[in-house]
Amino acid sequence: MKNNHKGDFRKSCIKKLEFISLFSKYYKNKIIVKKLEKFIKESESKNILLYIPLGIEVDVRPLIKTLRKKKNINVYVPFMEADSFKIVKYRLPLNRKKFNILEPNNSFLKPNKIDVAVVPVVGIDSLNKRIGYGKGMYDRFFDRLSYKPTIIFTQLILCKSKEVLSDNYDIQADYIITN
User: Fold this and answer.
1) How confident is the model over 126-143, as pLDDT tens digits?
2) Is 123 annotated as a binding residue?
3) 139 carries a ligand binding annotation
4) 138 burial class (0-12, 13-18, 19+ CB within 10 angstroms)?
5) What is the CATH number of the domain that holds 160?
């Protein structure tokens, strides 16, 4: 029964996110990116996992651009592999892959530990656990890490359930940044 609720909640959040006006989206993105930049600077994080956004996700590309100019910061993004992903250094060109996601080319360099992981969410439940697109890629990725980075969820508008919809393997946020 819980999974049915989770699916319905996911659909309603996606609907809300799809109907944000372009002006509103632009404004919300700017606010959230500024908050992320401030957090990264204050935490003195050096290895940052970001993502290449889909249309309903917070557009972190301006943050990627800013961070890449800093000599002491490494920017990583997911590279889909099997049922999850590995992290690769962000670099151009980007290629369109499965689920219409853009990715850089594969990299064989193993990054140091990531300090901060910025993760897009469709919604969150009452435990601040992630409701994503339902593929479980982020959950598997973090489950396979031997350490726990600081996890920040981003969302254009907060879509939060009053119920527990997550499973015990769903990842939980240390921070949630929305507008």
Assistant:
1) 999 998 877 778 888 888
2) no
3) no
4) buried
5) 3.40.50.10420
